[in-house]
Amino acid sequence: MNKNRDYCKFVEDIKKEVQDIIKDWGAEAVFVPAGSPETEDCLIVKIPTDEGMGMQRFLMEEIYQDLRDKRGTMEEIVEEVRDALKMARQVSEMGVLDKVDRYDEIRDSLILRPLNYDANAEKLDKGIFYQIGDVALVLYINIGSMKDKYVSSMVSSNVLSIWEKTKKEVIETAIRNTYRLFPPRTVDVYSLCFGLSEEQEFMHTVPETVKNNQGDGIFVTTVNYVNGAIAVFMPGVMERLSELLESDIYFGFLNTEAAVIHKSNLVSPGVIQDALRFQNHNCGSEEFLSEKVYFYSRERDRIEVVG
Question: How far apart are CA 50 and CA 53, in angstroms?
Answer without folding.
Answer: 8
